[in-house]
Structure formats: C-alpha cells, structure tokens
Write a sequence for this structure.
C-alpha cells in the first residue's frame, strides 16, 4: 500500500531560521508528491508539488525535490517568517493503475511555530 | 469564484445521535472527496464521489457511515448513531469534471465534529 512518514513535530524556530521538514514515502506505482499547509481554523492549501523524479516544486520561498532513489520529498525554506506558522502535510497520489482515483495519502502533519 | 464550502463548521452531537455534514464543491466541479482527520493524525481518505455515483468508498467504516452526492445540492456525509471515536475534523475536497485523479483537489475549511 501507500504511506507517507513525516518527521515528528512540533518544530519551533526563530524568525529567519532555516527550515527542513523531512518526508519519506512508500508507494505502489509512480506517485505525485505534494506539500499542503493548514493555517489555524482553515482547510488545506496546496503549497507545492512535483510529479516526477528530480522535479523541484517551489512556492512562497519553500522548496522540495522529488528524490526517487531515497523515496523522499523534504520541505525546505531558507528564512522562515512568523506568518509561516502552520501545520504542514506531505502527501502522495498515485493516478496510474485505475483504482486509485486520485485519492491523497497524507503524512501525520508537522506543526511549525515561528517566534519573532 | 467561491471556494469549497462546508457546513456546519462545528457540530456537537450526543452519543447515539445522527450527524450530517455538507460539502458544496467549487463551481464547475463534479468530483468530491471526503477525508477524516483524527486528533494527532493526518488526513485519511474516506470516499470519492461523482454526481449521483459513489466511485470509491474503500476508506469508509463499514457501518453507520454513508455518503451521497445528488444531481442537485451539496454532497452529504452522514454518520448514524455517533460514538465518541467519531470526534474528528471532516474535510471535503473537490476537483473538476473530466480530469479524474490528475486534477488538483481544493479543500474546504472542514467540519469539526465533537461527540459528547
């Protein structure tokens, strides 16, 4: 089956610090990989995605590279801001194969708190 | 274009009562996914529907849970005879017609169900 494992949280950083949130996966088939962000009281928003090996997804200063050899998709940001405080979810989707129907498989989420 | 709407945002039910959760997809979207987020866990897929059809309900508990997406009106997730273990956040996501699992899913803000 498909599964996603994220680093244990919560993560607490000072403003302008470097952020890494680790994500590894197992999948039957060739997955697309995603990072979603959930701000307090809101639904999930797509942050970035990558659909094939060595692709780099990027958005709002966040980056993640699809590493097939290590089955990883780690999220990084060079300088975090207080406004980045949220819960971050790594997820995968396998479309090929006929029975996945595009459903997402999520990691358990990582709470990020950034202090001024 | 309004986003995915869910109501109510918060729902409190006593054990044994019924819970009805509603999801109005984005305009023009005819695919709906429901996910459940238990405390301290990531989101777990429950069911995937297209208008008037259940396509994949592999994540739905076998008893007490049902879902529908009628030709007119919102998608409904119904939980009969709720128990404390049903307390969770329930999210729906919609995606456009005709692009199946390839399309991005847009999430609603969720309904937080509390069973007392």
């Amino acid at each position: 089956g498909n599964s996603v494992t994220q680093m244990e949280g919560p993560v607490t950083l000072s403003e302008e610090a470097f952020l890494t949130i680790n994500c590894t996966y197992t999948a039957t088939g060739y997955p697309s990989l995603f990072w979603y962000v959930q701000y307090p009281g809101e639904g999930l928003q797509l942050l970035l995605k990558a659909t094939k090996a060595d692709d780099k997804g990027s958005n709002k200063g966040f980056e993640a590279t699809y590493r097939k050899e290590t089955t990883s998709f780690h999220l990084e940001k060079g300088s975090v801001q207080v406004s980045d405080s949220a819960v971050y979810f790594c997820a995968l989707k396998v479309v090929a194969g006929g029975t996945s129907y595009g459903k997402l498989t999520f990691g358990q989420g990582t709470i990020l708190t950034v202090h001024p | 274009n309004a986003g995915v709407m869910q109501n109510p945002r918060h729902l409190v039910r006593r054990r044994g009562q019924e819970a009805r959760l509603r999801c109005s997809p984005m305009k023009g979207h005819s695919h709906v996914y429901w996910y459940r987020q238990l405390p301290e866990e990531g989101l777990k897929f429950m069911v995937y529907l297209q208008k008037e059809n259940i396509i994949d309900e592999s994540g739905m508990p076998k008893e007490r849970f049902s879902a529908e997406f009628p030709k007119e009106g919102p998608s409904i997730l119904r939980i009969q005879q709720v128990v404390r273990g049903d307390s969770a956040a329930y999210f729906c996501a919609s995606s456009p017609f005709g692009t199946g699992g390839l399309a991005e899913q847009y999430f609603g803000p969720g309904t937080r169900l509390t069973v007392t």
User: Anything to note?
Assistant: The longest strand of chain B covers residues 29-37. Chain B touches chain A at residues 4, 6, 33, 35, 40-45, 48, 55-56, 59, 91, 93, 95, 100-105, 107-110 (CB under 8 Å). Residues 19 and 70 of chain B are 18 Å apart (CA to CA).
